Amino acid sequence: MSVVDRQEWDVVVVGAGGAGLRAAIEARERGARTAVICKSLFGKAHTVMAEGGIAAAMGNANAGDGWQVHFRDTLRGGKFLNQWRMAELHAREAPQRVWELETWGALFDRTQDGRISQRNFGGHEYPRLAHVGDRTGLELIRTLQQRIVALQQEDFRETGDYESRLKVFQECTVTRVLKDGERVSGVFGYERESGRFFVLEAPAVVIATGGIGKSFKVTSNSWEYTGDGHALALLAGAPLLNMEFVQFHPTGMVWPPSVKGILVTESVRGDGGVLRDSEGRRFMFDYVPDVFKEKYAETEEEADRWYDDPDHNRRPPELLPRDEVARAINAEVKAGRGSPHGGVFLDVSTRMPAEVIKRRLPSMYHQFKELADVDITAEAMEVGPTCHYVMGGIAVDSDSAAARGVPGLFAAGEVAGGMHGSNRLGGNSLSDLLVFGRRAGLHAAEYASGAARPRVDDAQVDAAAAEALRPFSAEGGEPDGGPPENPYTLHQELQRTMHDLVGIIRREHEMEQALEKLAELRLRARRAGVEGHRQFNPGWHLALDLRNMLLVSECVARAALERTESRGGHTREDHSGMDRSWRNVNLLCALADPVDGFAATGPARGRIALTRETTEPIRPDLLALFEKEELVKYLAEEELYE
Ligand code: FAD
């Protein structure tokens, strides 16, 4: 057996972004000895990149706001496929989570009378995003880290050891969740710098690993987003929910090629930025779908008046939910009215004075100046859709964040499914990860305190070590006699496949092609070979990440092929409308054979088994928050009858 360091903890949190840190703080405060593991340096998680803000109905900018309005907006944004109880808890608890951050030292931007300032974002009826310029994620992570340090200092005073109850293992990658029978017994992973293996034994594991964007060619996501947590859960026996829903943010940079995909925050539109085609037309007025017609302005004059008088005017169509705006940009470019580099124009320079732009959007100003030599205070930006967020994820219980089917496994943040339905509203991720990060930490701690300590199975540890070492011995001949493969080449082919064949607009025959290509890549990935040794070896790390990206990509492609309608972040050219009969259908992906999917199903047929389930009916008092005429547009016939 390989040399493996072992430690015992009560709760292990995989991921140190907003969700992971919030979970860890809660678990430690509830008395659980808690370990946090992250792939990157502590403080460098993807959450740091979040720009626009945290959505919470605090009512600071408009007293008409409240949790019910936020709940309604979230369901409309998700096209009523949201796990409604999650959306309810989220809307009710988000304000408390923001105020709590403030008591822990977060310095939010303020209104003139000293309250936390809130800005407009797409799909939100009122200004609702608490923010710190366009660097909100940085402040969120800084505050949570500060809270962790405060708890560690408390522990030092009591035990003489800062890390006795809360310890962070940075630059460590988890590759397997270990199990004792049906329940969780810990995690297996490796230190990225030394390559050494380790096992953390624990009755409860919280997965908070973020998203999957690195499976797509053009993405706003950081290098960490290889779908690890999704795959860890699948491999441990927990299903993934509605993986077809992938959000393509409408505004990523399109030029120069080296920065293609980097996000242009929605705050630009929230603060007054407008979208124009190559002829200078504000084209979004042509793309307001029927379900939103009553809520969006029909003329530029009305749209512009809304910024000063939102109570008597309707919103500009640039602030439609992201899926609508992304499709509109895609259609404009396809119709030949795009910008020189294949996007459209986003302009704030004619809408705000230069000093206001620099104050409200400092990161955007520097991003364009330094990366594209564009001065956004004087000229328009070129923007186009970029893969941004995955709505699909680990199927969880709404209240406790417990993953389905695997006792002791919890999930929170972007890796968890259900909360956002078919499309997430901007700002709803930072609030989601605070609300459900806390809930996951709380319930993991409770579960751990009542559970007998599990037994770690040495055979599983050996198998995990052998799996991790395989890229060093991939010499060809296994399993089909082909030559060793380069992990970087495989990754590029995977990204191209997902971008071209399972991207923003989807077609049946292309998704079938994608599944064939994924099957081929999966075979070749078994021969992914690396040279050198285990000390910081990025090729090896990527070879291991490929397993996760391939599994998750297959889930996305299979579910997208199955759902024969267009809804939120899933657009079918061959089934262009939203179909009410799909409103109450969830698609679940599970591993076809938890022991070894290759043996059971054969690689060409893939590793994922897909099943349908009917969603739980929306509670009547929550349905009563909507007008009947609106419900008619969304709900299936039998639901309306009931
Ligand atoms: P993350 O913050 O990504 O953390 C994941 C953690 O898991 C990391 O620590 C990582 O190292 C770790 N990890 C991953 N795999 C492993 C493994 N195998 N082993 C160990 N550790 C692992 N949302 C909003 O609500 N408002 C915004 O304004 C906003 N702006 C955004 C701007 C940009 C540019 C981007 C890209 C996204 C934005 N989002 C925004 C979305 C939001 O930032 C993310 O959805 C959110 O931060 C995800 O947080 P998380 O805690 O789930 O995961």
What does this 3D model show about the protein?
There is one protein chain. With 642 residues, this protein is an alpha/beta fold. 36% of the residues lie in helices and 15% in strands. The chain contains 19 helices and 20 strands. The chain has helices at 18-29, 67-77, 84-103, 136-159, 228-236, 267-270, 300-306, 322-334, 354-360, 362-372, 428-450, 458-469, 487-501, 508-525, 538-562, 597-601, 620-623, 628-634, 637-641, and strands at residues 4-8, 11-14, 34-37, 54-55, 118-119, 129-130, 166-169, 172-180, 183-191, 197-201, 204-207, 240-241, 246-253, 274-276, 344-347, 381-390, 393-394, 409-411, 585-591, 608-614. It has a five-stranded parallel β-sheet with strand order 7-3-2-11-18. A hairpin with a 2-residue loop joins strand 8 and strand 9 (183-191). Helix 1 runs parallel beside helix 11, helix 9 crosses helix 10 and helix 13 (487-501) packs antiparallel against helix 14 (508-525). The chain starts with a strand and ends with a helix. The structure holds flavin-adenine dinucleotide (FAD). Flavin-adenine dinucleotide (FAD) binds at residues 14-20, 37-40, 45-47, 49-53, 136-137, 173-174, 208-210, 220-221, 224, 228, 263, 389, 413-415, 426-430, 433.
In short:
The chain starts with a strand and ends with a helix.
Small-molecule binders here are: flavin-adenine dinucleotide
Assembly form of the protein = single chain
Query: Low-confidence spans: pLDDT under 50, at least 5 residues?
Result: 594-604
The count of β-strands is 20
User: Percent helix among the residues?
Assistant: 25-40%
Estimated structural class: alpha/beta
How are the strands of the largest sheet arranged? 7-3-2-11-18
Characterize the overall form: globular
Taking all Cα atoms into account, the compactness measure Rg is: 24 Å
Tally of alpha and pi helices: 19
Give the terminus-to-terminus CA distance: 60 Å
Profile the largest sheet: 5 strands, parallel
Mean pLDDT: 93
Strand percentage lies at 5-15%
